[in-house]
Amino acid sequence: MKVPEHRSLKEKQRLEREELILQVAQDVVLEKGYRDTSMDEIAARVGIAKGTLYLHFAKKEDLMFAFFEREMQKILQAIEQQPVAAEMSAQAKLESIVSIMHKDPSGKRANLLFILFNSEDFKIALQQKSLDTLQRISDKVMAYLEEGKARGEFDPDIPTGILLNSFFSVLSPRSHRRLFQEEGYTREEVMFCVQKIFFRGIAKRSS
Amino acid sequence: MKVPEHRSLKEKQRLEREELILQVAQDVVLEKGYRDTSMDEIAARVGIAKGTLYLHFAKKEDLMFAFFEREMQKILQAIEQQPVAAEMSAQAKLESIVSIMHKDPSGKRANLLFILFNSEDFKIALQQKSLDTLQRISDKVMAYLEEGKARGEFDPDIPTGILLNSFFSVLSPRSHRRLFQEEGYTREEVMFCVQKIFFRGIAKRSS
Amino acid sequence: MKVPEHRSLKEKQRLEREELILQVAQDVVLEKGYRDTSMDEIAARVGIAKGTLYLHFAKKEDLMFAFFEREMQKILQAIEQQPVAAEMSAQAKLESIVSIMHKDPSGKRANLLFILFNSEDFKIALQQKSLDTLQRISDKVMAYLEEGKARGEFDPDIPTGILLNSFFSVLSPRSHRRLFQEEGYTREEVMFCVQKIFFRGIAKRSS
Amino acid sequence: MKVPEHRSLKEKQRLEREELILQVAQDVVLEKGYRDTSMDEIAARVGIAKGTLYLHFAKKEDLMFAFFEREMQKILQAIEQQPVAAEMSAQAKLESIVSIMHKDPSGKRANLLFILFNSEDFKIALQQKSLDTLQRISDKVMAYLEEGKARGEFDPDIPTGILLNSFFSVLSPRSHRRLFQEEGYTREEVMFCVQKIFFRGIAKRSS
DNA sequence: TATGAATGAGGTTTCATTCAT
DNA sequence: CATGAATGAAACCTCATTCAT
């Protein structure tokens, strides 16, 4: 109020630190899972006091939700910035979305989303927040699925809601993770096959 | 000691109680997840003292593992008792397995297995036990998948390991649960579509 | 009251079992210490139900106290049955008592008494019971100590109470146990030296 | 962080509290023994929450070990700071050690050490820690015992290991405690007599 | 009388959250 | 703002003791 520039500098620092916290939290969650990630450890790794953590995020849930939301935002932005040629097939568009979700710089995104999605604690928290960004991603995918049906690419007999769910099942590395972590398949190989199964599976029969 | 009937009566009561405990544990796990299921709460809901719980299951892990194993046994037995005509297609055989896994009286089985499978704590416990039953179910499915490939039903270009994983993905109600719990689809409809996607997706292309 | 013979038969069986329980309790206490000896384990080793244990001894403390008392009784009897020649020196008489306390058939007595004497729980229980037998043993030793003083064997300047305590210190295998369990001394060697120190230490100076 | 005085003030308070905890723990252990000393009770008596206790000592064992080690350190330092004239007899040196061990401000030290030494649980914990301080005290005593033998003060026929044990037996107030707590002897009187017995007992006979 | 299933108080330890400095 | 010590609820597990059969 007195010195706006100062205020915004502070604000910038604040955001930078928030970003750092989220990064660290992500790492820890990936290592230890949701429940075994303690606020103590996050604070320690960031190099701040536990109390400071609570200045940024009032609850553990809030922190967790924040980086979930951030990932979603990134995905949404990437999807929206993706150049989409009009004549591109619906399948190609959806494949590009899958590709976005699996190809983050750190390569951790999909695992992270999976962990959060399957953490009981987190689910409960999630239901109480608005899922706006998630909804928008979902809408985008749904739009492509319906476009594909309209174009005759996808089987119109399968309800779009079910298609949507199956799409996100394909995406989530679920047990796929095991395939390249323990059974020696490459990530690319697995994703290629899984997408193949999915898109063939939903294709309109050429009859 | 003297009277066999007496002994077996006690034993019967014991088994009944054990069954009750497992039922309750199942419910709580379904509601709250593995970690948030406390021995206290299970005992309270069963209506017994905490100590009594420990007479039946020496550790939380043991209790959890017990009903996991029990479900697996039921599934394995059902699979093995299923009459399998020699000329039945591999797909039909696999469909019957899916059907078994999804048709338990309570309708909770698949969710439960999914929760346990994705609980970090439980995984660790699981690795220290023999996974015999689980392995045998898995072997059965794998055998059918390879039979299907040999018969020209399934695409031989997709590694069987990946097929196997995808099969269990289809099975696990993961987000499917949402479809009939919140979005108004019937369980049958969802399973029908999901299986359709899967089997079309892995079918050998008619050249 | 109706059938005395029967009654006494029952009574005899009862005592036999009580003896067995005490034997087993002794073994377990020697193996695990006072606190880590559970009523469950005693019952299991005796081959009776836990409830039966409580028909004989209403509290854990009572059981423990019972075999403490029993050992004391044995010691007292052995002491009183010991033929004591009038002209025997006081030192010789005391040495024979030490010998009795250390030479029980099982060779466990001294350790056991030591464990009990140093168990906090037991001490408290002990204080609430009459220590009759213990007192009588103590009186016997005290009498010999005073006899020794009167005869000019022991130093009359050391109060008999202190001598008494030191005597029981010498007896108790305390850390002596370590000497032959971990350091390779023989039990006899240790006892010989320790008694030597004690009796020389309390001897009247020949000046 | 910025102000050293501030840091050291906090540190000082922390140490003071730690000291208080150790004091209280000592009292409780003296009253109830090792096993019956609960973290709850210690916290309650100190007037802090249970969790706070765990900020200072991560395990019950650690707390117990901490004050054991602290006492040992105090004793070792006192021994090493003791001015030792070269011509002093070995007996005089050992007497000064006994005196140190028995003359702590609270007068509880020896009892405490004895309780800990005879607690099964503590022994196990002790074996996993380095016994450095304990060993050094023990070495010092042993050196004096051997010096005494060499000088012709002590009986060379008694193995030094046995002498060492007997020395610590004399020190430990074992049942001595009873003498001045219940029987009206003074501490000094008891210690005087007990040392007299010990040193006479181990003296070389003037032949 | 004998049984052993049932009880529940009590013990240790963890960790999200608060708050005085 | 930042700190981190303090809190206390809650989790798992044990075991002496009771009591219906």
Compile the SSE list and pairings.
The structure is a homotetramer of 207-residue chains.
Chain A: H1 4-32, H2 39-46, H3 50-56, H4 60-81, H5 90-102, H6 109-117, H7 120-128, H8 132-150, H9 160-171, H10 176-181, H11 187-202
Chain D binds a DNA duplex (21 and 21 nucleotides) through helix 1 and helix 3.
Domain HTH tetR-type (chains A, B, C, D): 15-75
Keywords (chains A, B, C, D): DNA-binding, Transcription, Transcription regulation
Pfam family, one (chains A, B, C, D): TetR_N
- Find the biggest chain interface: C-D, 36 and 37 residues
Question: What is the radius of gyration of chain A computed over CA atoms, rounded to a whole number of angstroms?
Answer: 20 Å
- Estimate what percentage of residues of chain A fall within beta strands: under 5%
Distance between the termini of chain A: 70 Å
The percent of residues in helical segments of chain A reads over 70%
How many structural domains can be distinguished in the coordinates of chain A?
A: 2
Shape descriptor of chain A: elongated
CATH class of the largest domain in chain A: Mainly Alpha
Oligomer: homotetramer
Proper CATH architecture of the largest domain in chain A? Orthogonal Bundle
What's the name of the CATH homologous superfamily of the largest domain in chain A?
Answer: Tetracycline Repressor, domain 2
CATH topology of the largest domain in chain A: Tetracycline Repressor, domain 2
H/E element string of chain A? HHHHHHHHHHH
Structural class of chain A: mainly alpha
Number of strands of chain A: 0
What is the average per-residue confidence, as pLDDT of chain A, rounded to a whole number?
Answer: 85
For the sheet with most strands of chain A, the description reads: none
